[in-house]
Specification:
The protein is mostly beta strands and 369 residues long. The chain has 1 helix and 35 strands. The protein folds into 2 domains: 4-40, no CATH class; 53-364, 3 Solenoid (Pectate Lyase C-like).
Length: 369
């Protein structure tokens, strides 16, 4: 019997036209026996999945992508759509790819499916939708504006008066995602979020700003959560640089976070790993590091801030301070952590330490280094 033997005399036997496969057995070969299973290889058209393929130049591919997403009319919570993008370069020119609600867009991997645009944002994602397995780059200041979700996405932004790789004001979640903002923008932010957004396994990098650089900027209210996040910001000695900035009345949780700020300063500006304007926040199992020639703080807390730091490392250089507080009512509590540089009180505030040690492993039971 022609075909592929699979087990105990069973075989897959194609028909003459190659459009179907019969599953036959020895007992099935008699003319009086019909095939037990037939699989139609001609396929059935997808009902809610659209496939976008490269059709020519990068600009032609971009037009095809815009058309494909526009074809998902009628998407809803009970009628969701999926747009699959084949490997290729998709240039949107000066158009934004608008991802509707309840339409997921899935590339073939961040290394092989790339969307570029000379507009801000390059991709605009509605709530209830997810973008995944794709890279996005804007040369006009913003790669992605998202209210929905990101998974396995790479975003880069440059060329604007200010640059933000991902803006997620009220977005749902970002996982396995990297964001880079670079170039001579006044304010460069790799990621800015608000609300209850969660970041998991995320890398954020900001560089090249002429005034303010932040890797992750969080504002507003809510309970944002950062887990296993790397935030890096670098300047050239004259900028204010903050790896993570918490600038609202939210209650943020930072767990297993690495925040690195380098080479900011000048004219009273500083280099800060985590800046906290107000709100109640918890930092644990994290590494906060600052380097540079100017003012440097591991944690800088302003008035109305209440902060717990546990099981963490605050690494500074030179005459830096591990913790700086400013304003009556500001409270920072550090426990079971490494502190290099001690605490600095400006215009009131409280810093309390329990079971901490400094760079030479001197232990402090209930005082700060």
């Amino acid at each position: 019997m022609n075909g592929t033997l699979i087990n105990n005399g069973m075989a897959l036997v194609p028909n003459a036209a190659g459009t179907s496969i019969d599953l036959n057995s020895k007992e099935n070969t008699a003319a009086s026996h019909a095939a037990r299973l037939e699989v139609n290889l001609a396929g059935v058209p997808f009902t809610r999945t659209l496939v976008v393929s490269p059709v020519g130049t990068a600009l032609q591919n971009g037009i095809a992508l815009l058309a494909g997403v526009a074809g998902t009319t009628g998407a809803s919570a009970t009628n969701p759509y999926l747009v699959r993008i084949e490997p290729g370069l998709y240039d949107l020119g000066s158009q934004t790819l608008k991802q509707p609600a309840f339409v997921d867009i899935e590339g073939s991997g961040t290394g092989v499916t790339k969307i570029i645009a000379a507009v801000a944002p390059a991709v605009n994602i509605a709530a209830g939708s997810e973008l995944r397995h794709v890279s996005v780059e804007s040369t006009q200041g913003m790669a992605i504006l998202v209210l929905g979700r990101l998974l396995h996405v790479s975003a880069r932004a440059s060329g604007g008066s200010s640059n933000t790789a991902i803006e997620g004001l009220g977005s749902e979640s970002m996982m396995e995602t990297s964001a880079v903002a670079f170039g001579p923008g006044t304010v460069n932010r790799a990621i800015t979020i608000s609300g209850n957004t969660s970041l998991t396994n995320v890398i954020a990098d900001s560089s090249g700003s002429t005034s303010t650089g932040r890797a992750i900027d969080i504002a507003g209210t809510g309970t944002p959560r950062l887990f296993n996040v790397i935030a890096h910001v670098s300047g050239t000695g004259t900028q204010q640089v903050q790896a993570i900035a918490l600038q609202g009345t939210m209650s943020a949780t930072l767990e297993s976070v690495t925040a690195i700020a380098e080479n900011g300063g000048g004219a009273g500006k500083g280099t800060v790993a985590v800046y906290i304007a107000e709100g109640v926040h918890h930092i644990s199992n994290s590494k906060l590091s600052v380097t540079g020639a100017e003012v440097r703080w591991g944690v800088q807390a302003d008035s109305k801030a209440n902060v717990w730091v546990e099981n963490s490392q605050l690494t500074t250089a030179g005459s830096s301070y591990a913790v700086s507080v400013n304003g009556t009512g500001t409270i920072v509590q550090v426990g079971n952590s490494r502190m290099e540089g001690g605490a600095f009180l400006y215009n009131g505030g409280v810093v309390s330490c329990v079971a901490v040690y400094n760079a030479v492993l001197t232990f402090f039971t209930n005082t700060c280094p």
